[in-house]
Design goal:
Structural class: alpha+beta
Number of strands: 11
Strand order of the largest sheet: 1-6-9-10-11
Helix content: 25-40%
Strand content: 5-15%
Shape: globular
Order of helices and strands: HEHEHEHHEHEHEEEHEEHHHEHH
Number of helices: 13
Largest sheet: 5 strands, mixed
Radius of gyration: 25 Å
Distance between the termini: 53 Å
């Protein structure tokens, strides 16, 4: 959308989504949609696409815990320690023994393996048991046990999970505790300790960092700054203060990016784009420190921006994800006419397959055998 910003795009998409739900699902979604910053989403849910229907919010508790307990659950120096509470439905056979068996079986299962092998430390698990001193929370110490009880209004049989992580700004799509939150909820639903979540919870996640640290798995745009564009290098800084930070401290720059999330599914993401050739080139060359050859690959974009480009913003919705969500399907494969197999094969047209000499001749192709050194 030309001469538009984030607000116009989000309002337009909200109207579209609400009309789809009314027309095809006979459901009226709330409006306006809730909004949450990236930092809030990661801190409270451990995910940049949180399912806010789940009640298990995350809280930071390291300031409450004794240092000897922290050292037992993590070898990190001065880590952040966060907590969540899992409570079974009141209709379930609730009790400390039931919860104790549930968490032991989960951590011993294949699904629990990534969490017990977490390099930041294993999750610390505590079962609220009114028959024990401090309701089974004596390892937390008297003050921490009292504060945790107030924070969560704990009940007999509740599971309290502690997880350490490095004390650094959030980056990426989830934290270990955020992933554990979803896994515990799914396991509890499978075993009928929790009812499946229902309804729809639309949410805009905003205020993403414009840049994130590069990792071995996420090398980004190949620059030498140790930074990568969180979404893509064409997203505009959000405010004039963020523009100033581009030169002073790019790690603190907030991008004008927004994701539409419903029930933990990212339906689409959009942004206000950079429309100044000078700023675009500065981001690629001076912030990301992309090579001259790499920047030259975008010469056509820079040429167009110099020719005159209006301020503009947009969004792309994932059509398959949208349809799967509306139909209550857990996988987009359920709504794709001819989905590929896990090996990337199309069983309908038998692709990929053997290429005959006749086909090669039709397209003037031939095989070349390259000798290995």
């Amino acid at each position: 959308m030309s001469f538009a910003g984030a607000e116009q795009v989000m309002c337009t998409i909200e109207d579209l989504i609400r009309s789809l739900w009314v027309k095809h699902l006979r459901t009226k979604l709330p409006g306006p949609f809730a909004r949450m910053s990236y930092v809030e989403a990661m801190a409270q849910y451990g995910s940049d696409k949180p399912d806010t229907r789940l009640a298990m919010k995350i809280s930071r508790v390291d300031h409450l815990l004794p240092s000897d307990l922290i050292s037992k659950i993590s070898s990190l120096q001065a880590p952040v320690v966060e907590a969540l509470v899992l409570r079974f439905d009141s209709s379930s056979s609730i009790g400390p023994s039931t919860m104790r068996k549930f968490i032991a079986d989960f951590l011993d299962s294949v699904g629990g393996t990534p969490f017990v092998s977490n390099p930041d430390g294993n999750p610390g698990v505590f079962i609220v048991d009114s028959r024990k001193p401090l309701q089974g929370l004596q390892a937390l110490g008297f003050e921490a046990a009292e504060r945790v009880e107030e924070m969560y209004q704990i009940e007999d049989g509740d599971l309290i999970v502690l997880q350490a992580r490095q004390d650094r700004p959030f980056f990426g799509g989830s934290t270990s505790l955020g992933q554990l939150r979803l896994a515990l909820h799914a396991a509890a639903v499978r075993q009928n300790y929790l009812r499946p979540t229902t309804g729809f919870a639309p949410l805009w996640v905003t205020d993403f960092p414009l840049f994130s640290p590069t990792t071995q798995d996420e090398p980004g745009q190949g620059g030498k700054a140790g930074l990568a564009a969180t979404h893509h290098p064409f997203t505009s800084p959000k405010t004039s203060e963020d523009v100033d930070l581009l030169m002073m401290d790019p790690r603190k720059v907030i991008g004008d990016h927004y994701d539409l999330v419903i029930n933990g599914v990212e339906l689409g993401g959009g942004s206000r784009r950079i429309h100044s050739a000078e700023m675009q080139e500065f981001v690629m060359r001076d912030v990301l420190k992309m090579s001259a050859e790499r920047v030259a690959e975008f010469s056509h974009l820079l040429h167009v921006l110099r020719a005159g480009c209006p301020p503009h913003a947009g969004i792309a919705l994932g059509f398959d994800r949208l349809i799967a969500l509306m139909l209550g399907k857990s996988s987009v494969r359920e709504v794709i006419a001819f989905p590929k197999t896990g090996k990337g094969e199309d069983v309908l047209v038998k692709s990929p397959g053997h290429i005959t000499d006749e086909v090669l001749q039709t397209y003037s192709l031939q095989f070349r055998h390259i000798k290995e050194d």
